[in-house]
Predict the structure.
Amino acid sequence: MVFLTISNLIRVRGPDEFWRKRRIFRLAAHFVGRRRNCYSVAVRNVHRALVYATKARKLKKQDMKDLWNTRISAACEQHNITAFTLKEGLDRSNIMLDRKSLSDLASWEPRTFECLAAIAKQKLQLDGFIDTVDKKYPTGVNLNLKDVMLEAWLKEKK
Amino acid sequence: MSAVKRAQQWATFARTWHIFDCKWQDPYESANVIKKYLMGLHKPIYHPMNDCGDVVVCINSREIALRGDEWRQRAYFHHTGYPGGATWTLAWELHNKDPTMIIKKAVYRAMKGNLQRRHTMERLFIYPGEVIPEEVKQNITNQIRQIRLVPTRLDHIPEEEVQKYPKVMDYPEDYVLK
């Protein structure tokens, strides 16, 4: 068996020390004190920071999801409808809005959100869907569906 | 009005003052409701770094109801920091000392322990009775719905109404009422 790798490793000593350290120091540039000035301290902290960054990529998504959920349930509460009922009603009427869009609508376009809540309520009424979670009856706006020509659209099977 | 400022709504960020009647309410359940208003979780613009919490005024905190045997069972722990400085105060003792303390601690514990918690607690006013200062009263614009219906006590119903109420049976002559 011929080991090609070993002879290559002997010849190539790896990157220059200066450049190797410089790469670490660049990543530690925003640290404070010895953590940015001493290599042996800096490299430990850079590795730790990179681990945090890796974990945070997932955490950020979870945090945003939690925030959207909080905002949606806050907006739903104003119209006396639970987030579950809203989602169920919108799914049944084939309105595929995700959490982000719903929470954006809730904070920036409250009237649009109110109409969405009304549509969800109307759709569940037409379907005869009884939600045991929702003790209170949804009191959103009453859309006059004949005026906006939604009735046929809501009644059709999705 | 310019097109940019057409939808500008300053009142969105205004602090609303809510009132909550603690009469016959479980403090630990109502703490979750109060917390929601204090932190601003009931607003669609909520963000942890957005100062959008409201003010909550709790009245009748002397009249709270603890479930089951909790008045005797629940102990509040305090430590002075010195050796042997630990004390355990039962809920009824604490309530006798300060009728606002149980609801205050319940709300404090319901919130997550971060730097903001103590500042949020500053926006909670608790009064043992129905009397609240005028400068607090004039700000209140909303009432938080109670979690439970306040039951009417039998001795608070007028005598003639109790007499009129249909009876299933009369007690026997020789029956001794406790």
User: Anything to note?
Assistant: The radius of gyration of chain A is 28 Å. Chain A has two domains: 9-59, 61-155. The interface with chain B takes residues 67, 70-72, 74-75, 77-78, 103, 106-107, 110, 113 of chain A (CB under 8 Å).
